[in-house]
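Audit log entry. Action: structure prediction of a protein-small molecule complex. Ligand: guanosine-5'-diphosphate. The ligand was supplied as SMILES and no pocket hint was given, so placement is left entirely to the predictor. Protonation state taken as written. Sequence taken verbatim from the request; no trimming, no tag removal. Recorded inputs:
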Amino acid sequence: MQTLALIIPAYNEEKRLPRTFDLLEQAKNEGVFSSVELIEILLIDDGSKDRTAAMIEDYQKSHPQYRVIRVVPNQGKGNAIHTGLKAAQADWCLIADADTATPWDQFKKVWAAGTPVSIGSRDLPESKITTSQSWVREHMGRTFNFLVRMITGLPFRDTQCGFKLINRQAIQPFIEKLEVKRFAWDVELLMFARAYQLGITEVPVSWEHQDASRVNPIKDSIEMLIRVIQMRLRICFLKK
Ligand SMILES: Nc1nc2c(ncn2[C@@H]2O[C@H](COP(=O)(O)OP(=O)(O)O)[C@@H](O)[C@H]2O)c(=O)[nH]1
Ligand SMILES: [Mg+2]
C-alpha cells in the first residue's frame, strides 16, 4: 500500500488548529484515507508568535502521529512547504492549509486523479464554494490566476488553493531548485512540474472560506506577481 504524509504549514494557528485536528481525526475514523497508509502528519510552524508549536506538542502526547517542525524566524508558506516535502518519508504528500478550508474528504478526489501532481481548484465548473470569501479577495484571486496564465502559459484556473497532492519521488529531480519562499510557491512548483513533464491534474474541490486569513490581498498579491515574473524569466534558462 502506498504511504501518505500530510503537510500543514502553520503561522499563528493556535486558534484555528484545534478544529482542524478534530476534523482530521473524524476523517480518519470515517475512512477518508483508507486507500493509503497515513504515516505522518507534519506541521511546519513558521516562526509563529503565538503558542502554535506548544499546542501541537501537547496534542502530540496523545496523538503520536503528529509532528511539529519549527522554522525560526518566519520565512513564508513556500519555505514551510519545502521543509515539509524534504522531511517527509511517505510516497505521497498532501499539502493542506491549517484552517481546513478544503474539507479532508476531498482527498479522495485528488487521489482519484492519479497524476504525480493533483491540485485542488476553486474555479472549475464542478468546484463547490460553500462560504465565499469577500468580493475583493475573490476577484484579486481570479485576476492573479489570469495573469499567471498569461505570463507562464500554465493552463490552470486556480493555482492557489491550499490543497495539493504530490508524489514525493516525482519531484526529487527539482525539489532543491525551488526558491520561492512565500505565497507564489505553488506557481513555481507547477512550472517545474511542467518543465519536468510530470502529469498535473486540476481537480474541482469544495471549499469553505475561513476567516482570519493571514494573506493580505493587495500587498501579498503584488509580491506574488513580481515573483511570477521573476520565475518566468528564470525558468527560460532552466537547465535540467
Ligand atoms: N509557514 C507559513 N505559513 C503561512 C504563512 N502565512 C500563512 N500561512 C499558512 O498558509 C495557510 C493559508 O493561510 P490563510 O491565512 O488561511 O490564507 P487564505 O485562506 O489563502 O487567505 C495556513 O495554513 C497558514 O497558517 C507564513 O508566513 N508561513
Ligand atoms: Mg484560509
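Audit: result stored. The two ends are 31 Å apart (CA to CA). Helices lie at 17-29, 52-62, 77-87, 107-113, 135-152, 168-171, 185-195, 219-236.
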